[in-house]
Structure to design on (122 residues):
């Protein structure tokens, strides 16, 4: 996947769900190369983005391999079990990026909020 020079707010690939494999991409951009987004309790397929493997990619420029942005939510934003493996970076703005947003949920009830867990960069 190759994008034109200096486009802003143009993620290469956004992922949310479960049991996902992404491999052997060649991405040139100036925003997140691969981003794992949160799934929530409202998602009927996956209440948590989980069991995701992204491997063997070449990233040119870009913000690299990203989690988020994860914001506290009454629907419980969740990313759990993500592996970023064996990537090649050329002139990255950032290679590794985990974006969290501070804040509180409207209800502040148990089960609201969010979680990022079991993330491996190797």
């Amino acid at each position: 996947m190759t994008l034109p020079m200096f486009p802003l707010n143009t993620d290469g690939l956004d992922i949310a769900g479960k049991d996902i494999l992404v491999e052997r991409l060649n991405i040139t951009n100036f925003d997140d190369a691969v981003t794992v987004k949160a799934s929530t309790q409202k998602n009927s397929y996956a209440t948590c983005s989980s069991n995701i493997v992204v491997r063997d990619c070449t990233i040119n420029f870009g913000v690299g391999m990203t989690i988020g942005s994860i914001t506290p939510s009454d629907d419980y934003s969740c990313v759990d079990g993500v592996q970023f493996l064996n990537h090649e970076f050329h002139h990255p703005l950032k290679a590794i990026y985990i974006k969290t947003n501070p804040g509180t949920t409207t209800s502040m009830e148990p089960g609201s909020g969010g979680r990022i867990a079991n993330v491996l960069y190797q």
User: Anything to note?
Assistant: The CA atoms of residues 25 and 57 lie 5 Å apart. The chain has a mean pLDDT of 86.
